[in-house]
Fold:
Amino acid sequence: MKILIKNATLISMSEKREKIENDKDIKIEDSKIIEIGKNLKEDADKIMDATGKIVMPGFINTHSHVPMSIFRETVDGYNLQDWLNKKIWPMEDKLTNQDIYEASLLSFLEMIETGTTTINDMYFMTEEIIKAAKVSKIRLQTSKTLMGQNDEAGKQRIQELEKLLNTYEGKDERITFNIGIHGLYTSSRDYIKQCVHFAKERNLPIHLHFCENTKEVEDIKNAYNATPIQVLEQEFTGQKLILAHCVKLTKEEIERLKNLKVSISHCPVSNLKLGCGIANIFEMVKQGINVTLGTDGQGSGSNLDLFETMKYTALLQKGIQEDATLLPAYEVLKMATINGAKALGLESKIGSLEVGKKADLIVLDLQNNAVTNPINDLCSDIVYNAKGSNVMTTIINGEVVMENRKVCYPKQEIYEKCKKIIERIQ
Amino acid sequence: MKILIKNATLISMSEKREKIENDKDIKIEDSKIIEIGKNLKEDADKIMDATGKIVMPGFINTHSHVPMSIFRETVDGYNLQDWLNKKIWPMEDKLTNQDIYEASLLSFLEMIETGTTTINDMYFMTEEIIKAAKVSKIRLQTSKTLMGQNDEAGKQRIQELEKLLNTYEGKDERITFNIGIHGLYTSSRDYIKQCVHFAKERNLPIHLHFCENTKEVEDIKNAYNATPIQVLEQEFTGQKLILAHCVKLTKEEIERLKNLKVSISHCPVSNLKLGCGIANIFEMVKQGINVTLGTDGQGSGSNLDLFETMKYTALLQKGIQEDATLLPAYEVLKMATINGAKALGLESKIGSLEVGKKADLIVLDLQNNAVTNPINDLCSDIVYNAKGSNVMTTIINGEVVMENRKVCYPKQEIYEKCKKIIERIQ
Structure:
């Protein structure tokens, strides 16, 4: 199958190319981009005219809990612990495999409709999430969450993850894995050692909640007799890490982070909504740390729309540092694309549009909304004014999953099923 | 002309009604709501089915500079003073009457497409803005901006505003006025006295930039030998005020504010983007001060979409106060509707849907987007997940200005004209 996209304004996010290129054609064969240029030969099975439209890489969401779509807007007026204890955990206990599958379909639909092509997930009943990803054709990095003590139950969790990896790893190029450890505060040091050992054995990155709020930091200090950053230095050296949140870190701790192999998943919307605070990603960027963007689960993050996350990311740093010159729009686009790919170890395949890379891309139309006109600075217009609804077409691994806002999903059926799940378990 | 909206989920924002009411009909005659109830008699010229949709008051934007639509995204990488000196002011000098008219049309189109029915404006060449508002059928409160010294030029500005008021005040119920004073830092104390005197004479509220950033506060201290709050207390007592921004106020100063007749126009997006900071509106609400929402001009605020402003408002306070229970969604909806009406002195006419009030309302459809499903908390879903594009229909003063996303504007023509203006003056 060959697809030719014609006459696009291209924002490839490739260091080897200009930031913005006009009148470019992109040719795709099967899963890959095989040519980028002007007036390419029209020898494709499908030709898409992108005149006046923008083509760029699909976004990469580096922190989420995919099936939590059904918990959207259940949090207003609760603090984190009350929300978990009184609302989420009792409901999660009632979730069936089928629920996880349906709720995941809703999340993947959200992603496709808002231009995200890859997501990094941390949850349980992972087989169902993988099943939904395959149906949705989403690129997924996932795990089965590890947490607890180095006892029989803990060991069994590692065994289950091992079984999952043995069954699925390397079978579908869109499905990759990491080792999801819930957090330092929900595992013992001994168990952390086992998990890191397992990650090294499988040569996989670790995905970890880290320094999300003040209470977590205190809990870790009490449990480990060490600060979170010290635990990282003691137990995770040499290990590739994706750290979600990193809100409660001092400048000095951020400086120490750069000596570890870390990427940060910055989740500004969730961090605000749960009353955690604002991560100092300006300092992280200054230290050369790879900052990427995440939404967190919809329970706290409301939705999986990375357009929103980009805008919050850019604005919050300008606001709290009181410097309007910080984080230009293009830097934020990098966080949502190529930086995310690096975090997941997929930078040779996705995150920018280049010949030989996978065709994970979106087509944006900014021509028909008052809020995106006139276009004085295209990258700023994307970061500050574009919405998920400006994504007309989404292509993942060379497959068109949405075209002119039409998806092949039975959308209303998914909404109704998810509504029934939440009604049942509430 | 009679319009009947049937079977809506009604969020009237009226204190006399339930927060959310199902299956309600709303009957409009000419400019007013004449009946709200179930199964109303179908004796209307136009019947609109709102089954599964939400009807609520149109939003009220209490701080903007309407013609600045053309300056959207010209600010990235500049600090405020550089942006004004090097970019905005040289361009503004070249603006013609026709430019102001076209640029205002774009702003009003933006409002209609994103559910805002009333806007409070501060700019110049006000006759053109009024002309565009009449064509767009927008509800506008405006002024001709006063600033400077109590010299001939300053007196002439007041005379011009007086002439404007004499020509337009009371002629069109959608067009009302206030006295726009640019700021304390751009006027002398003597001139401020003249402006306040004039406002009292005309019995109109004053619209004023106030404590937007640190430099402004310092400039005022130097010029007045008094803090901004002291100048307010000395010069504006008894005067109804709409204060835009209020970022740089201490808790103690906020407490003093409540003794004045003030409403706050909170503009969180612009305040972040210009590196000003985050206003402590949580404290203002606690003190019983009327907090309303504004976007500022698009040059700094990016766009006029109050859905975004609502979300930023709710999230920022939760985040900086580190308390997820603050500012429930319904409180934020009040800021965007009835509180705005109170600020503009229009609360007997707009801001909530009640029999006898003007029919300024929007119809929202949250059924067809993944990000708004399932609906677990309707008000939260509106504040955190709805977008301007969920507004299907906008009615102002009983006139349908957008129906099922269709406006009667020549949209592309407006975009093209605005593009040409910015290209010419750059």
